[in-house]
Amino acid sequence: MLDALKAIIRTVYIFALMGFTLWFGYFLHPVIFGMDGAETEEDIATREIGAFFGEGATEEEKEFMKSIKQQQQTSTTDLGYMVIEEQYVKGHFHHVGMKVESDSSSICTGCHGAVPHDKAKTIRAFLNMHAFYMACETCHVRPEGNEPRYEFRWYDKETGKVVANPPGLNTLDESMYGNYAAKISPGELRRDGTFKFLNGPKELAFVERYLKEESRLNDTQKSKMKKVIHRNVNEDPLICDGCHTIVDEPYLPYTLLGYPQRRLHELTSTEVVGMINKYKEFYIPHLLRGGGVDKDVEAE
Amino acid sequence: MASDDESCLMCHKMPGLGRYAKDENQNATKRILYVNEALFKASYHGRLPCKSCHRGVDEIPHTDAEKVDCASDCHIKDPSSNSGFSHRAIVHDLSMSAHGARQAKAGLEDDLPDCKYCHSNKPYQRSDADHRQSMKFLNICLQCHESEEWAERFYKHISYRASIRRSSKQIVELCSQCHADRVMMDNHELDVVVGFNDTFHGKAIRYGDAEVANCLNCHAPYESGFSPHSILSQRQSRSPVSGDNKIETCRQSGCHTGAKEEFATSGKIHPASFTTVQMMRRNTLNRPGDADPETAFQEWVLHMISLFYKTLIIVVVGGLALHQVLDVLAIRRERRARGG
After folding, report:
1. Distance (Å, whole) CA B92 – CA B76
2. Which of A29, A177, A248, B200 is the most buried (most CB within 10 A)?
3. Are both B249 and B266 inside the same structural domain?
4. B189 part of a folded domain
């Protein structure tokens, strides 16, 4: 009995000592050898560039990879009482304080990006603001002639599924405005009571397939496929006073979408509508009247 | 919000407000125009109206907005002089330093860091313990000062400035973003700093030692009248890491106070390892410094010492492991021989 106990203690001691030696070696290695031979971030970047573009990547290609890396980079700021994790944007001064969910269900963002408006200088930031919580189709696809009006629902940016009441929509906290991890998108209500978005998983799969095959297609084929993808897009998008109006019924059914009464009043308030009217009158008369483009756009 | 008298947040509170803009070199840069109100209010600049920094935003759209200039006068008074507060002196220091755009080669000005490269509008750090402490302290302040908001902010400002705001590890990471970038350093004809992590300073920082010297302690020692904004090139005689000044930098209080002359001149402070130097020579332009035979010999000696120690450790640790395994086998064989 005593011999067996001794043997167990001896074995445990030997293996513990071996384990400790290995751990100590692992721990001590960087103290003695520092980063000698370790792959630096730049080495990793060089390796990735090599893997993507092959040997002898040009400066532009290196810059491209750098931008991709930067897009994926997050910045973490430990404030002691809270940790802010946000996407790293070079040269941005004010803290955003949140991570922005990417819209994986949109059929448009794959080509046009999440910040798609860049031409009309006077209103592009406002339009991009709306693209944060409204699908492109909401303004750029509208029923033609006598077609019935679309229904609208929120969809989850990640899953693409209908969300009845996105978190934050009913909050009194103004810092949550627009930040619902969901977007409003048009569609139709079926007879069985289910809702179908104009562009769903089927259309998304089609666009993804097109992007995958694009390099093998000739110009005519590309043009044909793009026409199919953009077949519902109206030349004249919905304009601001379609929704921000005091006089008419807003194009979007705010109440049905779950906006509280207070928000409904804000969205159609004199403050917002007045600002839009000022824009309409002084800055972007053509664009906001529809049927044309802003002078900025023409100039570009 | 006191600083939003102009109702800027009516639009700028919306998270998607932003755009891509082309800079002077036609590169598209992302501009986020959203401002997180809570974080802004808690930040250093939280008491300032937006227009203090963002001049020329009198109309919507802000077509006449000027670029933010940290050297301009703010709309607050410097309590020490009662004159308009400004970061002008710091901006001037930076422009005269090694990091000032005027020091850059033509066409490479954008590589040089501006204020925003190192500074973001951080909220004051405030742990719960700090908050409790500040509340105790505030009661003393409020015996004389009427405004609790002012007193709390003043206390936070002083306590924050007196604390270490960036760890040594973060400082090394920040400086390395440029100084470990081979291409950028080649463009500016500077040595790429790849050996710092191999030094004792680098290793101690890696293991979380807050007392050990980081880049700024040697290149911008406050004790010698420098600041992170007034770093000079090593080639300038006034630089704390230039020639004869090095030893005084090593001797600064709290560091190697008793260091002898040889301490600062006996070798490179952050040498690159032999492997790294070989790799650099393969991948980058051959600069005159790379061909220096004395440096090459030193690198070779360091490499051989490193190789010797690696071999020794493998032999000793491997030998120990082998010995233990053989010992276990011997015990088992002995036990079998005894019939147990």
Report:
1. 20
2. A177
3. yes
4. yes
Q: How many domains, chain B?
A: 3
Q: What is the pLDDT of residues A220-267, one digit of tens each?
A: 999 999 999 999 998 888 988 899 988 888 999 999 999 998 888 888
Residue B261 domain flag: yes
Rounded-to-integer distance, Cα B149 and Cα B127, Å: 18
**A83 → chain B, closest CA residue:** B125
Q: What is the pLDDT of residues B96-143, one digit of tens each?
A: 999 997 778 888 888 899 999 888 888 876 566 666 676 777 888 889
Per the CB < 8 A criterion, the answer to whether B261 and B245 are in contact is: no
Same domain, B277 and B302: no
Contact A80 B14 (CB under 8 A): no
pLDDT digits (tens, 9 = 90+) for B225-253: 999 999 999 889 999 998 889 999 999 98
Residues 6+ apart with CB under 8 A from B187: B105, B108, B111
Q: Does B59 touch chain A (CB under 8 A)?
A: no
Alpha carbons A52 and A63: distance in angstroms, whole number = 13
- Paired with A155 in beta bridges are A162, A183
A278 in contact with chain B, both atoms CB, cutoff 8 A: yes
Does residue B245 sit in the same domain as residue B271? yes
Q: Among B238, B108, B275, which residue's Cα sits nearest to residue B183?
A: B108
Q: Are B174 and B276 contained in the same domain? A: yes
Say if residue B274 is in the same domain as residue B169. Answer: yes
Smallest Cα distance from A192 to chain B, Å: 35
Query: B238: domain range?
Result: 164-283
Q: Tell me the C-alpha distance between A217 and A126, whole Å.
A: 36
Whether B106 is covered by a domain: the verdict is no
pLDDT per residue as tens digits for the range A94-128: 888 877 778 889 999 988 988 899 888 888 898 99
Contact A34 B202 (CB under 8 A): yes
Residue B91 domain flag: no
In terms of domains, do B317 and B226 share one? no
Report CB contact under 8 Å: B19, A128.
yes
| Residue-wise pLDDT tens digits, A178-212 | 888 899 999 999 999 899 999 999 999 999 999 99
Is the predicted pLDDT of residue A92 greater than 60, yes or no? Answer: yes
Distance in angstroms (rounded) separating the CA atoms of residues A294 and A285:
7
d(CA A25, CA B309): 12
Q: Compute the Cα dihedral for B199, B201, B204, B205 and give only its sign.
A: negative
Q: pLDDT tens-digit profile of B256-294? A: 988 888 888 776 777 665 555 554 444 444 444 454 677
pLDDT for residue B339: 76
Q: Does residue B278 share a domain with residue B184?
A: yes
B250 and B311 fall within a common domain? no
Answer yes or no: do A132 and B14 touch at CB < 8 A: yes
And the tokens for A92?
């941005």
